[in-house]
Amino acid sequence: MEQLQERIAKDLLSIRAVFFRPNEPFTWASGIKSPVYCDNRLTLTAPAVRSDVENGLAELIRTHFPDAEVLMGTSTAGIAHAAITGHILGLPMGYVRSGAKDHGRQNQIEGRLEPGQRVVVVEDLISTAGSVIEVVRVLREAGAEVLGVVSIFTYGMKKGLERLAAEQVTNYSLTNFDCIAEVAAREGYIQLEDIKRLLAFRDNPSDESWIGGTL
Q1: How many alpha carbons lie under 13 Å from residue 164 in its C-beta half-sphere?
Q2: For 27-86, what is each residue's pLDDT tens digit?
Q3: How far apart are CA 196 and CA 106, in angstroms?
């Protein structure tokens, strides 16, 4: 597993899917200011990295959720990954909208899902876990048995971990914030002493003392 985590970390860094910007921090939808941003959509336009990612997600599902019957992607970032991974595994897939459509059949879940089916949610990254938990709730309300979540990257934030635990949701990620930071330092993307600052942000996002630092 450690080899897979490092390989995916190197992949994401090599295509510049991970950005370090402490002087002009990124603002997430949750309002958190972050010195790091991970854009996993870029994996779709890098065939070699995409292959590593989708085969890695398939392996996570084979290992941890062998009884999966359907894959459901999060909208919109998880849709393509669910489709490709579903193709590799020979499983049906669908996705969950952020809200029900206001036209047609007014679906929020796209694709066929039967009550009682065992579902794995495919997400691109997890920070505070709010969006993926909403997807899990929608699927459970529809009668699905949600086995868990697989994702490309997790920040490992306390708030996210607590939310997942409260909803009894298990997530397995291909790589994580700690691994990304270590590999970035080793490969020369950041300095070794920067790891401590990055992990301090991860452990306490409300403390913005890292802003204006140098990475």
Answers
A1: 22
A2: 887 788 898 989 999 999 999 999 999 999 999 999 999 999 999 999 999 999 999 999
A3: 47
Render the burial of 101-139: b for 16+ CB within 10 Å, e for the rest: eeeeeeebbbbebeeebebbbbbbbbbbbebbbebbebb
Backbone angles phi, psi at 5, to 5 degrees: -60, -45
Residues 57-70: pLDDT tens digits? 999 999 999 999 99
The dihedral sign for the CA sequence 197, 24, 185, 124: positive
Reference 36, options 13, 18, 23; nearest CA is 18
Residue 19 tokens, joined:
């950005």
Instruction: State the CB neighbour count (10 A cutoff) for residue 87.
Output: 13
d(CA 191, CA 101): 47
> What is the rounded CA–CA span in Å between residue 151 and residue 161?
14
On whether the CB atoms of residues 129 and 152 are closer than 8 A, the answer is no
Of the candidates 21, 10, 7, the residue with the CA atom closest to the CA atom of residue 194:
21
